[in-house]
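Lab notebook, bench 4. We co-purified these components, and the gel suggests they stay together. Before we commit to crystallization screens, I want a quick structural picture of the whole thing.
Request: model the full complex, all chains together.
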Amino acid sequence: MQDISLVDLDLSKNQITDSGLATLCESLKLNKSIEFLNLAGNLLKDEGFKSMVDYLAANTKLKELSLGSNKITNEGLLNLAGFLAQNHTLQMLDISRNNFTDYGFSLFC
Amino acid sequence: MISSVLNERCRLGILKLRGIAVSKLEGKVIQYILMKNKQLHTLDLSFCKAELPEHFEFFMQKFDNFCNIRFLTMESMQPDLSTSIEVLGEALALNTKLECLILRDNKIKWIPYSNFWQYLIPNKTLRKINVAKTELTDKVLTKLV
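Here is the predicted assembly.
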């Protein structure tokens, strides 16, 4: 994936876990072209989100990220909030239908 | 219809053959279109049903370096693509035109699916890949990345 000029990757509604997400994010760190990434409807939890936040911190290309219908809790949401404060390229983030509460969401905002 | 599509004055750019039954004849006809028609840039074969999985292979093998298609959609193919996905991967390894590949909602066993991604490594033109709802697991993902 590092060598191809992939811009849009839709991996939604599959069976990707935190382990797979960590592998994907390591690879994506070397890929400088991805702008749209859809990981909605997988089996992702907070642990996997740490890899995602590391990747996002080093990324200046990604415009749209869909993470809906996973298993993110307040903890994962807080990690993501820290990154969002510093990122200036992401234009769309979908975190619908996860496991965080109103309290987590208030911290996120 | 086919002779019209293959006529050199035909300017058809988009061809949708969604939901057709693919016997050996249709498989060969699609193969022939891919080989002879240089105007088509978009092909949609979603929801096609083959009598035998091998019938898909007639045209899967022609998405190679001689194929001009830039946008290819094959959603929800039946029977599942486990038998023919590797043939597609071998062809796409050589392809230099395809930009968008949509394979969403297909059932593919993990070994042929892993091999497909392995074959795809030399491809340099794909910009959009949609493999939503294809039972992609972590094990397969390691080959994709």
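Residues 8-108 of chain A form a domain with the Leucine-rich repeat, LRR (right-handed beta-alpha superhelix) fold (CATH 3.80.10.10). Worth comparing against the SEC data before the next meeting. Residues 18-30 of chain A form the longest helix (13 residues).
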